[in-house]
Task: inverse folding
């Protein structure tokens, strides 16, 4: 009993210390939930550091690179299905048709999507989810929020997660255990692809939370705007005015022009076209019902 009481006291002290480290008396303008967000960011970062990252490193050690690339291509091909649906909802007909062609070509000629033949055929890889669709039609993002285990988001993007879940073909795989296993493999594979990016983030960012927040918001606005104005610069920048319709993040004057992502606690980088060593855009990862997992962006 005494040992159990001591254990509880240590856990309680650790939680209080963790919360105290993330307390913000004066939140950054435009980030009203900063105190909560920093606490959740720290928790997510620790979960990633002690659970996901070691598993991902073991996966890289055990699985040959060609196999990992095929796994990446397989899940990327599945993600193209609902990326196409969102592009069509946004009336981006050319992009939607291109996405459908990618799925058809990679499924037929790429052995079920294991090989990315569509990129060789010069069909570009797009990004899309329902949060971007809502933003396309002028819905403001709302406050930035770090979700438990799922990482960076906004009120708008969190709402879109529900639709993303039902739009993901993996949701309908039976039995449920197979669906969970596929999501688990996808999670580990995505985390493995981001190992280099998170190492760069840890070395380059003085304040990882601010860097990830700005990178996430700028990346989302970049995707909503269709890439107008060039690639985003992931440095310190003014946060959006959440009262403005279609709120946007201003282009920063300075910053590190590195695309980095922190799964489970950070934002995902702009995803390169599918191919050797590429990553699956995090918005393609939505956990099945009741599955306590991670969402990567």
Result:
């Amino acid at each position: 009993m005494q040992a159990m009481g001591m254990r509880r006291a240590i856990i309680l002290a650790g939680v209080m210390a963790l919360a105290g480290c993330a307390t913000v008396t004066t939140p950054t303008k435009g980030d009203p939930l900063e105190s909560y967000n920093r606490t959740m960011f720290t928790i997510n970062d620790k979960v990633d550091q002690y659970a996901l990252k070691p598993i991902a490193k073991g996966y890289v050690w055990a699985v040959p690179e060609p196999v990992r690339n095929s796994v990446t291509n397989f899940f990327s091909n599945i993600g193209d299905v609902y990326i196409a649906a969102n592009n069509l909802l946004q009336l981006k007909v050319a992009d939607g048709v291109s996405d459908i062609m990618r799925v058809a070509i990679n499924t037929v000629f790429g052995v079920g999507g294991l090989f990315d033949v569509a990129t060789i055929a010069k069909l570009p890889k797009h990004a899309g989810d329902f949060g971007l669709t809502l933003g396309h039609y002028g819905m403001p993002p709302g406050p930035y929020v770090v979700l438990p285990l799922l990482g960076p988001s906004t009120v708008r993007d969190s709402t879109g997660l529900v639709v993303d879940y039902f739009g993901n073909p993996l949701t309908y795989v039976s039995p449920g255990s197979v669906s969970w296993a596929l999501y688990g493999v996808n999670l580990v594979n995505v985390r493995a692809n981001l190992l280099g990016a998170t190492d760069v983030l840890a070395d380059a960012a003085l304040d990882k939370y601010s860097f990830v927040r700005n990178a996430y918001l700028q990346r989302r606005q970049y995707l909503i705007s269709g890439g107008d104005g060039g690639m985003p610069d992931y440095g310190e920048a003014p946060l959006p005015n959440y009262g403005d319709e279609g709120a946007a993040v201003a282009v920063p004057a300075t910053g590190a022009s590195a695309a980095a992502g922190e799964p489970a606690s950070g934002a995902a980088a702009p995803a390169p076209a599918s191919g050797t060593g590429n990553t699956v855009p995090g918005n393609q990862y939505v956990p099945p019902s009741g599955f306590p997992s991670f969402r990567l962006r």
